[in-house]
Design brief:
Length: 264
């Protein structure tokens, strides 16, 4: 029995067990994927037990994505650049860390993307760093990053360009892509205040928030004729790389999977 899971705190609402469970079932793999509620206090012990419990590895979510890095034997270049690990693979008794969020983000939007001249990214937290890394890798020429706290973006250099939060609406001119990486628009949070008037109707709009699936930003963009992609696909695509590493089969992201997750 191959064992994997996800660690976080809190973890009860994680969709990852349903997601990996669907694939284990679909491919008839004898495996287990469980959610582990690990407080920051319990993290050192869990990291030790990861090898001892003969787990193939685990996903890592809030609040451990950065702190977990100190316990790993190896961290790939991408995780180091993003400053966070979301996937751990146990190999030869060693813990390897990687980050599949940038890949998941790009996979989710690629089929819908027309141009790669200019992207506007709202927010500068952990999710933004993965999104920005993915956009630079994908070949975007100009990536505007705008954040409420300007200090977090002030030192960015090409292809990134910092823009004050007050200028976010004006910065949308000529953009091919608008991405919300802030928590604004999530159920229970304030909605995102932005004027889309300057955004070309040909631009793609995406939100990493998937709760609700159609955020106020996506609804407004869709109503004015923009193509929109919700954030659930990023979650599904980022999970695929870990599944393949642990269970030995590259899983497919299908509509059936999406429906299963939405119903769970
Ligand atoms: P994550 O790691 O999931 O990206 P985070 O690091 O807490 O989460 O980042 C949240 C992002 O949402 C930040 O860019 C934050 O802006 P600040 O750096 O100014 O805190 C942004 N954010 C959260 N609440 C906001 C609000 N009310 N208005 C504007 N931006 C907000």
């Amino acid at each position: 029995m191959i064992k994997a899971g996800v660690i976080g705190h809190p973890i009860a609402h994680s969709l990852s067990p349903a997601l990996h469970g669907f694939w284990l079932n679909q491919y008839r793999i004898e495996g287990e994927y469980k959610a582990y509620d690990i407080s920051p206090h319990a993290l050192p012990d869990f990291m030790t037990s990861l090898k001892e419990n003969q787990m193939a590895g685990c996903n890592v979510t809030i609040p451990h994505k950065t702190s977990v890095m100190a316990y790993l034997d190896e961290i790939d270049e991408m995780s180091a650049a993003i400053g966070a690990v979301n996937t751990i693979i146990v190999r030869g008794g060693k813990l390897h860390g990687t980050n599949t969020d940038a890949y998941g983000f790009i996979e989710n939007i690629s089929p819908h993307l027309r141009g790669k001249h200019k992207a506007v990214v709202l927010g500068a937290g952990g999710a933004s760093r993965a999104v920005c890394y993915g956009l630079a890798q994908a070949g975007f020429q100009e990536i505007i990053v705008t954040n409420r706290t300007y200090d977090a973006v002030a030192n960015l250099s090409a292809p990134f360009r910092p823009v004050p939060w007050e200028e976010r609406s004006a910065s949308l001119a000529n953009a091919d892509l608008l991405v919300n990486t802030t928590s604004l628009g999530m159920i229970g949070k304030p909605s995102l205040a932005i004027d889309l008037a300057a955004l070309p109707v040909s631009a793609l709009v995406t939100d990493i928030v998937y709760n609700p699936l159609m955020t106020p930003l996506l609804n407004e963009a869709k109503a004015r004729g923009n193509r929109v992609v919700d954030g659930l696909g990023m979650l599904l695509h980022q999970a695929a790389a870990g599944f393949e590493a642990w269970f030995g089969r590259k899983p497919e992201v299908t509509n059936a999977l999406r429906e299963h997750i939405l119903a769970s």
